[in-house]
C-alpha cells in the first residue's frame, strides 16, 4: 500500500533526524554543565560574539530544514501520483452512528450499511490493484473515516464532499473507525474495509455476495 509505505518512510527518517538533533543538543548541554559545574571558576570570554560559529549553526539548521521540506514534498508527490486508469468510485456517508457505502457504478445499485452494534458492521469492498476514489460526506455532524493499519484518514462534513484515492495491492480485511468525536456512540462507529480480486469485485457489483460480515445490502 503506497500510503502506508510513504508514511513509514517519512516517519522513520524524520524520527532519525529528530533523534540525532536531540542527542547533539543533549551532548552540548551536558558538556556545558560539566565544564561549569559547582566549585569551578570558569574564565569569562572577552569576545562579545562568535560570528563564525553562529554562521555554522544557522547553516546546519537551514540545511536540515531544507532537506526535510524537500524530502516531505517529494514523498507527498509520490503518494499522490495521478492514477494511471480511471478509478472506481465509492460514495461514503457517515451518520450517527455508523456508515453507508454506495457503489454508483454498480449495475445492481449495491448499497451497504449497518447499525455498528455488536457484529453488525458494514464492509467497504474494494478491488485490488485498481485505484478507488472514496467520496466522503456526512448526514449530520462531522465524522472521520480512519483505517489505522493502512494510514488512511479523512474527515466527512455535512453538505460537503471530500475525496481521496487509494490503491490496495493485495487482498485482506482491515478494521476502520470514526476518528472524530461525534456523539454518544462514537466509540462503536467501526467498519471493515475488504480488498478482493477485480473479478470478485465485479461479481459483487452485480449483486453477488462475497461472504459474511458485509452489513446490510440494499
Average of pLDDT: 84
State the helix count: 3
CATH architecture of the largest domain: Sandwich
CATH uppermost class of the largest domain: Mainly Beta
Quaternary structure type: single chain
First and last CA, distance: 30 Å
C-alpha geometry:
elongated
Q: Sheet with the most strands?
A: 6 strands, mixed
Structure characterization notes:
The protein is an alpha+beta fold. The chain has 2 domains: 2-34 and 51-79, no CATH class; 88-217, Sandwich (Immunoglobulin-like). Helix content is 33%, strand content 27%. The protein has helices spanning 2-35, 51-79, 198-205; strands spanning 88-95, 98-102, 111-113, 123-127, 132-138, 143-147, 152-156, 162-166, 172-178, 190-196, 216-217. Strands 8-5-1-2-3-11 form a 6-stranded mixed sheet, with no helix packed on it. Strands 4-10-9-6-7 form a 5-stranded mixed sheet, covered by helices on one side. Helix 1 (2-35) packs antiparallel against helix 2. The two termini are 30 Å apart. This is Cytochrome aa3 subunit 2. It comes from Streptomyces carpinensis. It catalyses: 4 Fe(II)-[cytochrome c] + O2 + 8 H(+)(in) = 4 Fe(III)-[cytochrome c] + 2 H2O + 4 H(+)(out).
Features of the shown structure:
single chain; 218 residues; alpha+beta; Immunoglobulin-like; 2 domains; 6-stranded mixed β-sheet; elongated; disordered C terminus; CcO_II
Amino acid at each position: 500500500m503506497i500510503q502506508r509505505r510513504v508514511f513509514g518512510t517519512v516517519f522513520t527518517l524524520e524520527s532519525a533526524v529528530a533523534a540525532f538533533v536531540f542527542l547533539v543538543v543533549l551532548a552540548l548541554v551536558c558538556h556545558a554543565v560539566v565544564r561549569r559545574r559547582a566549585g569551578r571558576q570558569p574564565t569569562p570570554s572577552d569576545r562579545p560574539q562568535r560570528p563564525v560559529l553562529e554562521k555554522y549553526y544557522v547553516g546546519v539548521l537551514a540545511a536540515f530544514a531544507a532537506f526535510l521540506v524537500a524530502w516531505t514534498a517529494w514523498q507527498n508527490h509520490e503518494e499522490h501520483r495521478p492514477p494511471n486508469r480511471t478509478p472506481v468510485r465509492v460514495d461514503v456517508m457517515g451518520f450517527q452512528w455508523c456508515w453507508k457505502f454506495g457503489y454508483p457504478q454498480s449495475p445492481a445499485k449495491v448499497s451497504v450499511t449497518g447499525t455498528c452494534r455488536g457484529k453488525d458492521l458494514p464492509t467497504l469492498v474494494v478491488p485490488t490493484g485498481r485505484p478507488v476514489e472514496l467520496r466522503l460526506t456526512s448526514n449530520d455532524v462531522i465524522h472521520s473515516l480512519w483505517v489505522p493499519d493502512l494510514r488512511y484518514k479523512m474527515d466527512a462534513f455535512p453538505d460537503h464532499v471530500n475525496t481521496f484515492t487509494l490503491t490496495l495491492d493485495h487482498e485482506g480485511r482491515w478494521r476502520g473507525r470514526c476518528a472524530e468525536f461525534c456523539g454518544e456512540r462514537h466509540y462503536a462507529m467501526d467498519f471493515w474495509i475488504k480488498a478482493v480480486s477485480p473479478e470478485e469485485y465485479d461479481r459483487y457489483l452485480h449483486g453477488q455476495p462475497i461472504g459474511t460480515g458485509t452489513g446490510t445490502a440494499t
